[in-house]
């Protein structure tokens, strides 16, 4: 089976390093974007099997990026998991209303839980 | 604060970032997440095995990090509740699935505490009319408590049943330490902790049940418990099956935001900050020691990857400590407990001390850091500790934003109030309020050849949690509170702070202090 590609849109370099290391150990291919604009372009070009998206990003924020991803025919079917440190019910609800598949709060989950969640999609 | 209508308009990031509690929590959570993930990676053994002693220290750091996660979450939920009241979006919810999921997700924690959770379900569980996003953390919190306070007998029972055709009742019972009889009436108050619970070395803020009661009552349900000391506790959550009808019992608290007077909001914010600070400081301090031992490799050698991970945790911990310290200053500033006791003294030794303390860092970054003082300076009325703190903040910013081989110059000169007043016209970022001191002022300036500040950022420089755009991308440490605190310190002395800057062309910060 071909390796699944996960696109991570996240500006915190150290978290990206830790998460991609763990994803690669679990036989995923990892693609990275450090801001929402380039993440959106990468998603259109590479059509990853899943996108991990942060909310507080430089420039366009994650909610807007999610909205664009869900409106674009090329990317609207790709499941998007929000991985943020914002996690009030309002924000969670907003993300789910915009079409996010799941919402994880970084500080609340271990890397193992993030990987388990990714595997469900 | 106006209530957000979900799914209608998107708030811009600036809106998300605008309220204090959200930002404070986000600021705290970011390093906490970094620490947690690094410790995860260390513990899973992929970066090579740790010795027993190393493993113990890393596990201890992990436990204190777990506590921080929960503390920040609970404080955030409680603060939000006070600020906005309970705002729910109830819908028919499958609680059987929700409870099963909570137990499944916590299986590692359950096993680690030698507990076993059994779930008793009737053949058919109707859906309850609640907001799953609010109910889930409540159920999780009560199960979590049952596990923590089990002590010795870890049999925990979770059952679901219907009561009439009005309620779904979730009962969670443990055989743990129980709640002392004389304390039972305050179980649902803020920051409640059982006397016997404090002795068990478990950590908790005592906010879970306070939040639970408010949310469940606003949902049209109720929460009760039965408990005896050393004989376990059972919590009963009665959740409505249908949308509560007006006038039905129990009375449903309307899910509307409570109007909070500005004074109240400020008081709540302070309480939040104070408690956050005190509760967070202890675990952070303990972790710092563990990490230092690991880093110095006194408890065993580390390979390169392990060292990097520990170093990352260490830096995250330092960042949290700095943030907590700044939050404490901020809380003191707001409650008027920030002491400034000005005395007529010479500023020269203060400036020299601050600059000297930065020389090693300057040498490492190949930055030329110089002081230029006139032969004699009049005395100023200042609190030496606070002014040292203010100057340190400014020099520290200059160090952060000045690249290698740059220069930073600190000068002091005497100016008349009239000359300063004239600046207001020349420098758009200067809005000096203090120009009337009859002996004039000393102006301390810190000039760098750093990255400068853009026009848009110049407007927000002295606001709380400000951090420059380029800064979010770099690895620069900072809490975004430094300049806000500095400005307040200077103003408490009857002086002003202002700056000139050009993107790419460096910045100069000025502080005026009254001559006595």
From TrEMBL, chain A:
Domain of life: Bacteria
Keywords, in A-Z order: Phosphoprotein
Modification sites for 4-aspartylphosphate: 54
Stored CDD domains: REC_OmpR
Any Pfam family matching the protein: Response_reg
Keyword Amino-acid biosynthesis: no
Gene Ontology annotations of biological process type: phosphorelay signal transduction system
PROSITE patterns: RESPONSE_REGULATORY
Name of this chain's protein: Response regulatory domain-containing protein
Biological source species: Candidatus Buchananbacteria bacterium RIFCSPHIGHO2_02_FULL_56_16
TrEMBL record, chain B:
Keywords annotated in UniProt: Kinase, Phosphoprotein, Transferase, Two-component regulatory system
MF annotations from Gene Ontology: phosphorelay sensor kinase activity
Gene3D superfamilies: 1.10.287.130, Histidine kinase-like ATPase, C-terminal domain
Protein name per UniProt: histidine kinase
EC code(s) of this entry: 2.7.13.3
One protein family per Pfam: HisKA
Reactions accelerated catalytically: ATP + protein L-histidine = ADP + protein N-phospho-L-histidine
Sequence ranges assigned to domain Histidine kinase in this UniProt record: 23-243, 275-516
Keyword Transferase among record annotations: yes
């Amino acid at each position: 089976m071909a390796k699944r590609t996960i696109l991570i849109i996240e500006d915190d370099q150290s978290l990206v390093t830790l998460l991609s290391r763990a994803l690669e150990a679990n036989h995923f291919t990892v693609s990275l974007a450090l801001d929402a604009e380039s993440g959106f372009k990468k998603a259109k070009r590479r059509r990853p099997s899943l996108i991990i998206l942060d909310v507080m990003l430089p420039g366009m924020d994650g909610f807007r990026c999610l909205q664009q991803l869900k409106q674009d025919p090329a990317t609207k079917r790709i499941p998007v998991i929000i991985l943020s440190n914002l996690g009030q019910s309002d924000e969670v609800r907003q993300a789910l209303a915009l079409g996010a598949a799941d919402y994880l709060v970084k500080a609340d989950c271990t890397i193992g839980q993030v990987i388990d969640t990714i595997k469900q999609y | 604060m106006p209530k957000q209508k979900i799914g209608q308009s998107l708030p811009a990031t600036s809106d998300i970032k605008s309220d204090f509690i959200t930002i404070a929590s986000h600021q705290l959570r970011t390093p906490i997440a970094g620490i947690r993930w690094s410790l995860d990676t260390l513990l899973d053994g992929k970066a090579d095995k740790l010795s027993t002693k190393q493993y113990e220290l890393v596990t201890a750091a992990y436990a204190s990090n777990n506590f921080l996660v929960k503390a920040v979450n609970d404080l955030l939920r409680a603060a939000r509740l006070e600020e906005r009241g309970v705002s729910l979006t109830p819908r028919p919810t499958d609680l059987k699935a929700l409870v099963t999921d909570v137990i499944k997700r916590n299986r590692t924690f359950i096993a680690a505490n030698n507990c076993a959770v059994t779930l008793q379900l009737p053949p058919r569980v109707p859906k309850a009319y609640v907001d799953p996003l609010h109910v889930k953390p409540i159920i999780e919190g009560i199960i979590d408590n049952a596990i923590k306070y089990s002590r010795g007998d870890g049999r925990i029972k979770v059952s679901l049943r219907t009561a009439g055709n009005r309620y779904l009742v979730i009962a969670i019972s443990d055989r743990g330490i129980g709640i002392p009889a004389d304390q039972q009436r305050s179980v649902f108050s803020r920051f409640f902790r059982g006397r016997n619970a404090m002795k068990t070395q478990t950590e908790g803020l005592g906010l879970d049940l306070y939040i639970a009661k408010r949310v469940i009552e606003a949902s049209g349900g109720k929460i009760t418990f039965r408990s005896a000391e050393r004989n376990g506790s059972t919590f009963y959550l009665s959740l409505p099956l249908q949308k509560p009808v007006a006038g039905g019992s129990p009375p449903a608290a309307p899910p509307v935001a409570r109007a909070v007077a500005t004074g109240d909001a400020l008081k709540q914010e302070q309480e939040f900050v104070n408690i956050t600070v005190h509760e967070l400081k202890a675990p952070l301090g303990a972790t710092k020691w563990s990490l230092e031992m690991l880093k110095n490799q006194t408890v065993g050698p580390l390979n390169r990857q392990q060292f990097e991970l520990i170093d990352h945790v260490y830096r995250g911990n330092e960042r949290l400590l700095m943030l907590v310290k700044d939050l404490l200053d901020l809380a003191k500033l707001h409650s008027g407990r920030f002491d400034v006791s000005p005395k007529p003294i010479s500023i020269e030794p203060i400036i020299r001390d601050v600059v000297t303390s930065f020389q090693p860092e300057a040498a490492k970054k190949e930055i030329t850091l110089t002081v230029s003082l006139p032969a004699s300076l009049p005395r100023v009325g200042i609190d030496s500790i606070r002014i040292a703190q203010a100057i340190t903040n400014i020099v520290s910013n200059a160090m952060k934003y000045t690249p290698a081989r740059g220069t930073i110059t600190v000068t002091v000169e005497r100016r008349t109030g009239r000359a300063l007043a004239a600046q207001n016209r020349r420098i758009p970022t200067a809005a000096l309020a203090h120009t009337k001191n009859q002996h004039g002022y000393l102006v301390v300036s810190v000039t760098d050849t750093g990255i400068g500040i853009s026009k848009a950022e110049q407007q927000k420089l002295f606001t709380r949690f400000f951090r420059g755009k380029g800064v979010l991308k770099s690895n620069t440490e900072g809490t975004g509170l430094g300049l806000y605190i500095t400005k307040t310190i200077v103003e408490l002395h009857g002086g002003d702070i202002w700056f000139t800057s050009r993107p790419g062309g460096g910045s100069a910060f000025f502080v005026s202090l009254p001559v006595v």
